[in-house]
Amino acid sequence: MKKIYILTAIFFAIGISGCKKDFLSQEVNPNLPSVSSPQNALSAAENATAGIITGGNYSYLGVWLGQVCPSGNYVPSSTLETYNFTNASFQVFNTIYLNLANYNALIASAPSTGSLAYFNAIANIMSVYDYEELVDNYNNVPYSQALNSNAYLFPAYDDASGIYDSLLAKLDAAITTAGATGAINPGSSDIVFGGNMTSWIKFANTLKLRLAIRQWTKLTSKQAALKADLATTAALGYLDDQTFATANPGYTASDANGGQQSPFYLNFGYTAAGAETGGHAYYRANKYEVNMLSSTNDPRLNYIFAAGASAGTTINGLVLGSDATNPSNATAGTFGPGILISPSMPAVLLSGSEACFLLAEGVLDGIVAGTTASAPTPTTVVGAQYYYEHGINASFTALGVPAAVASAQAYYAQATANVGWNFSNSSFAAEQQAIIVQKYIALSHYGWFEIYNEYRRTGYPNNMPRSTAPGALGTGPVPNRIFYPSTEFTNNTANVPAGIDVFNSKIFWAK
User: What is the pLDDT of residue 35?
Assistant: First the structure.
C-alpha cells in the first residue's frame, strides 16, 4: 500500500474506537510504506468499512435508542446516562477518513477506464458510503480539499448539502463505470459481492435512494432534481430482500485470539475460548424494545434477545439511568441467537430489510415508481405495501425465525398500528411511521447508526425513552449529534466549525 496522507500532516494510525484490531487491519507504519495490489487493497478497505459500521463504534446509540442498556453489574457511565459527553467521545472522524484514504489510493491507482475500471467503481461507491456516514455524524466536513495534504494541509469544511449533491453525481459516474465491459473482475478480492457488478450497480442505486430520501422532506426545493436523477438509473434496479450488501473476507472462530471473527461477534459475542466478550457482558436488553416486541406479539423478540442465565424464558429489559433497580446480568436479557449467529457471520453494510423499507418510503414519497415485483410469497402487491411487507419478511429470514415468511405474514396480518399495513395506511404520516418503526426493529443491533439517522429525520419511533439518570442534559430523549473531534480543534483550528450544541445543532436534513 502506498504511503497515504490524511487531511493533515499530523494524523497518526488510528484504531477503531471501542473495537478490537481485526485481521485485515490497514494500520501501517508510515515510515515503511509498502505497495499493495488492487485486490488486496480492495479487500482490506471493504473489511475496514465493515468494522467501522458493525464493530462497536455505535453501541452508545443502541443505548440511547432503547435497544441495549449498560449492565447493572457495572459502574454507571455518566457519559452515556446523562448525555454529558465531550469532543473526545464517540469519535469515528479519523477512522473513517483513514478508510477513505485507502479507497482514494485505490481510485488513484485504478483509472475509471481500462482493465481496473471495476476496482475504481467499487472504491468510488464505498467512498460515498463513507462520506455519507461522515456527513450524517458531523454535518459539514472536509470534502473537496480532503485527502490531498500536498495541496491542502488544512482542508476547508464543505457544506453538507453540497456534499450530498456531489455524492449523487459520484454514484452516477460509478454506475457508468461498473457497467462498462472488458475490465478485470475483482472476483473473490471483493468481499461484498464477489465481483458481481450488477449487484454493485444496485447497491449504488440504493445509496442514491437513501441520499434522496434523507433530504426529501427538509429540502423541498431539491425534490424535482432528486427525482429526475433517480429516474435516470431506476431501471437498473435496487437491492432488495434477495440481494443485499454484506462483507465477509472469511471470518472464522479458528484464530485463538479471536481477531478473525466477524466484527459484531468479535465485540458483542464470545471469545474463541467461549467466554463473554466485554461488549457482551456490558450491554443487556433494553426494556423499551423488549416491551415494543412483546406488546405486538412479535416472534422476533426471542431472536433479537435471549433470556439471562437465571431468568428461565423471561427476557428482562433494563432502563437507562435506573441503575439501582436494574437486574443483574444473570437475569437481564442479552443478545439473541438471531443476532449472534456465529463468529463467521457476514458484516451487514445495507440489509435486505433496509433496502425494502427504503423502496417502500420511496414509493410513498413519489421518488420511485411502484412496480409489480416478482416473488413467490406473499401475493405480489404493487407499491409501498409490497416493499413494507418484504422488508419484514427479510428481517424474519435474517434472524432465523422458523418458517420465516409464514411467521412474518401472520405477524403483519394483525390489526395493529405499525405492524399491519392495512391498519397503518390512514395517512402518509401513519405509513411512514410504520415503515420507520419496522426498520427500527429490523436493524436491531447491526444498524444502530442508521436507526439514529431515521429517528433524527422522522422522529420515529415517537415515544423514545429519555434516560432516567439524575442530571441528564438536554430537553429531548436523544442528542442531535456528536462534537467534532479534539484533533480538528488542535490541527485544523481555522476551519473546524465552532459553537456546536449537540442538542440544538442539527444535521442539515434532520427534522
Answer: 59
CATH classification at residue 208: 1.25.40.390
The whole-number pLDDT of residue 273 equals: 87
One domain, residues 185 and 300: no
The enclosing domain of 366 has a CATH number of 1.20.120.840
DSSP H helical ranges for 217-306: 223-233, 263-268, 278-282, 287-295, 301-304
Burial of 472 (0-12, 13-18, 19+ CB in 10 A): middle
Query: Could you please report the per-residue DSSP string of 295-355?
Result: HTT-TTHHHHEE--TTSTT--BPB-TT-TTTSPPTTTB-EE-TTTS--TTPPEEEE-HHHH
Separation CA 303–CA 402 (nearest Å)? 10
Helices (H), strands (E): how many in the chain?
A: 19, 8
Q: Using CA atoms, how far apart are residues 61 and 80, in angstroms rounded to an integer?
A: 9
pLDDT of residue 425: 83
As a dihedral over the C-alpha atoms of residue 301, residue 463, residue 410, residue 407, rounded to 10 degrees, the angle is -30
CB atoms within 10 A of CB 197: 22
Cα 27 to chain centroid, rounded: 22
For the chain, the straight-line distance linking the first and the last C-alpha, in angstroms and rounded, comes to: 42
- The answer to whether 247 and 50 are in contact (CB under 8 A) is yes
Joined together, the cell numbers standing for residue 424 give 397503518
Question: Cα–Cα distance between 62 and 304 in angstroms, integer?
Answer: 13
349, 246 Cβ separation under 8 angstroms: yes
Contact indicator for 363, 370 with CB cutoff of 8 Å: yes
Q: What is the pLDDT of residue 253?
A: 86
Angle at 463 between CA 462 and CA 469, to 5 degrees: 135
Cell of 75: 459502574
Q: Could you say which of 222, 251, 280 is where a domain stops?
A: 251
pLDDT-flagged residues of the chain (< 70): 1-35, 255-258, 371-382
- 274 dihedral zone (left: phi>0; alpha: psi -120 to 50; beta): left
Nearest to 363 by CA among 379, 385, 381: 385
SS (H, E, C) 415-458: CCCCCCHHHHCCCHHHHHHHHHHHHHHHCCCCCHHHHHHHHHHH
Domain of 243? 1-57+92-147+156-251
CA distance 71 to 104: 40
Find cell 405474514 and name the residue: 409
Cα(383)–Cα(270) distance, rounded to whole angstroms? 42
Query: How far apart are the C-alpha atoms of 238 and 358, rounded to whole Å?
Result: 10
Specify the DSSP class assigned to residue 119.
Answer: H
Give the residue carrying C-alpha cell 485485515.
24
151: three-class secondary structure by DSSP:
coil
And the C-alpha cell for 331?
Answer: 437475569
